[in-house]
Amino acid sequence: MLSIVIPTHESERVVVRTLSCLVPGVVAGVVREVILADSGSGDGTEQVADIAGCRFMTVAGSLGTRLRTAAGQARGPWLLFLRPGSVLESAWTAEVERFWMLASDEGGAPKAAVFQPEAYRGQSLGAQVLNLLRQAAGGGFRPEQGLLLTKTAYDRLGGHDAKSAAPEAQLIRKIGRKHIAVLHAGISGSQ
């Protein structure tokens, strides 16, 4: 089962979109918990979390510290990091379950996954190939695509760096492009 971690700060309005797209995962039994790792918001982010049944944690410190603390408290064997305002395409639960089956095969299976940016959806095959080539040439994956990996792999990698200015991107680089799969389900918008 999946623990979803969303770092928030004054995210009351945008996090509602993200939480609403997670409902199919809860209904399907894929989502065990959603954790909002907040930096001390003064808006209604905590009330939104309470209404939605999420765990709400106020964590002082950097983004990396908030993400690491929430991941350390997560109860599920899988972690999904999303940015507030991100909206997953409705087929996301099936894609995650498919990836779990591939990842359990071990061998040469990717160790982590990201979602396909909505901007790539509906593009011609040529444009999609061009975008994939750009990623292979160093463009890489972005934190806006979410990140799915096992809690064991997260811990083995050392988690998010509390001192990094860009801890999400740094973790993606640690995993490495060849160990990250792109799920077919799209993701759009984030704060």
Automatic annotation (TrEMBL):
<keyword id="KW-0472">Membrane</keyword>
<keyword id="KW-1003">Cell membrane</keyword>
<keyword id="KW-0328">Glycosyltransferase</keyword>
<dbReference type="InterPro" id="IPR029044">
    <property type="entry name" value="Nucleotide-diphossugar_trans"/>
</dbReference>
<dbReference type="Pfam" id="PF00535">
    <property type="entry name" value="Glycos_transf_2"/>
</dbReference>
<dbReference type="GO" id="GO:0016757">
    <property type="term" value="F:glycosyltransferase activity"/>
</dbReference>
<keyword id="KW-0808">Transferase</keyword>
<protein>
    <submittedName>
        <fullName>Uncharacterized protein</fullName>
    </submittedName>
</protein>
<dbReference type="InterPro" id="IPR001173">
    <property type="entry name" value="Glyco_trans_2-like"/>
</dbReference>
<dbReference type="GO" id="GO:0005886">
    <property type="term" value="C:plasma membrane"/>
</dbReference>
